Amino acid sequence: MIALDWGTTSLRGWLLGDGGTVLDRHAAASGIMAVTDGNFDAAYRTFTAGWRAAQPALPALASGMIGSRQGWVEAPYVACPAGLADLAGRGVMAGEAEAALRIVPGLSWRAPDGMTDVMRGEESQIIGALDDGGGDGLFVLPGTHSKWARVEGGRIVGFATYMTGELFAVLRGHSILGRMMPADGAMAHDSRTFAAGVADGLDHGHDLPRRLFGVRTRGLFGDLGEPAAPSFLSGLLIGAELAGARASGQIGAGATAATLIGETTLCTRYAEALAMAGIAARIADADVTPRGLWRLACAAGMIDT
Amino acid sequence: MIALDWGTTSLRGWLLGDGGTVLDRHAAASGIMAVTDGNFDAAYRTFTAGWRAAQPALPALASGMIGSRQGWVEAPYVACPAGLADLAGRGVMAGEAEAALRIVPGLSWRAPDGMTDVMRGEESQIIGALDDGGGDGLFVLPGTHSKWARVEGGRIVGFATYMTGELFAVLRGHSILGRMMPADGAMAHDSRTFAAGVADGLDHGHDLPRRLFGVRTRGLFGDLGEPAAPSFLSGLLIGAELAGARASGQIGAGATAATLIGETTLCTRYAEALAMAGIAARIADADVTPRGLWRLACAAGMIDT
Fold first, then answer.
1. Does B217 contact A at CB distance below 8 Å?
2. C-alpha A188: how far from its chain's center?
3. Rounded Cα distance, B17 and A305, in Å
4. Is pLDDT at B186 greater than 80 in this prediction?
5. Is A217 in contact with B117 (Cβ distance < 8 A)?
6. What is the pTM assigned to this prediction?
7. Which of B8, B213, B215, B217 is the best residue to mutate to test the A interface, defined by the most A CB atoms within 10 Å of its own CB?
8. Which one in A189, A280, B301, B305 has a CA-CA gap of 20 to 30 Å to A230?
9. Is A209 in contact with B171 (Cβ distance < 8 A)?
10. Model pLDDT for residues A83-127, shown as the tens digit of each residue
């Protein structure tokens, strides 16, 4: 089968063989924002041409923003709690019969505090991580918009989104804090300073707009050098995310473990921060996305098993 | 005398007569960042030429970033607690004898939680507001970097800075939240939506990176229209500032009143938000800056009274 993670800015694909084995992989900057003419059919045919030339009838399943209102065909959100069967059964078809693509729906959740939240793509990663030895528990997907999901009985029962990565990017790129940092985007990670930032966020995350100004005053008083400043800001924001997740119940009272899903360097940072909050984190295998899509395809009856 | 508020982006000046009466006022975009050649002497002579032509020996006092390391002459921070006499006695001289300018120092404070904070310019406004009927108590100066100062026995005993205004600007200008808002900077204020944002911030400000993403999901689910979105974000950030100020002790347990200093529209918004937090706010007279500089000049012996 063909498995696609079709997001806002990028498109990643895998050719999967028996048992979900990855036979080939391919990536392009063809996220839905890059398909400016809205011709997703052409983008899909181009991206999968090589794989489909050899086997035209390959089943194909995609997750991510391709199923949003701005994507190819909208796959309405499925409300939590939801698991493998719920997601597999609510796929939506796109494209012509000879080049059809099934799209996994996203998830929505209305939290007890009244806030509604959404995800698209992460649900398939979590399904893949569950298969990867992760059972019930807490799943954290760091990134531009970090997701915290709780899984019980194999179903995602609730989740929350934190704008942490985007806060870092806009503050570094456009605020007074960015002016005390090296111009280059490729920053050197300073573990000690990062840990100091995490501690600040864990202890004082409830006062974040003030602690952010504290990054600047630390610089003014020589307590924080320019090269290390991004590490402190990163730690502060991640620490504040953890403190908020704990205060609002994303981290349950007795939680001592979590599974991290995502880019390895960022997951390693989150693992360090979670350890400071008393949570032991394991980082999921990098191929949770194709594995989740394989499981969803099997559950949807797309694969003869 | 000549009184100047010489900040990062702007320069405001007043010609003051007997008793501190404002005889004339003048403003220019000659903030310290605009004096790119570092020739503050020339900028000062140009700005005050009209006033000094008539009376060459006028005493002159300035507050603000002109006394910072990036300014004309650095006026080292005075540590809190500090009042009129401390500030008046620690002025620093700049310029030639025939066109001399005295610069008021800024204030620094190391909070009990270890965080160091600074202000430059706001101390003179608070001194002016104290004269304006404001006694001891809580002073809030909203803006790009909001200041919260506590005054006891006429001295500023501690203060904290919140990056609220800058957070609003960078999120509106550069984040995904800005994309769900009208393009034009001149936003229409929506009181009800602003109040809903304040309530969200007061109740959930400890979980700010998540509540920020909630602004987006409210838009996705049609709970928040594009024209009202900036009002919600503004309310959320101000509410989170208030919640943080309360949690970290800037708002004392028994506090029921505060004095607001600053631009009238913004002060009105803060007064609405403070009322929701049980704090009755009075907005200080617009001319607290020249009044504070007059009082400081008198205390420094610059004026024959």
1. yes
2. 23
3. 92
4. no
5. yes
6. 0.94
7. B213
8. A280
9. no
10. 999 999 999 999 999 999 999 999 999 998 888 999 999 999 999
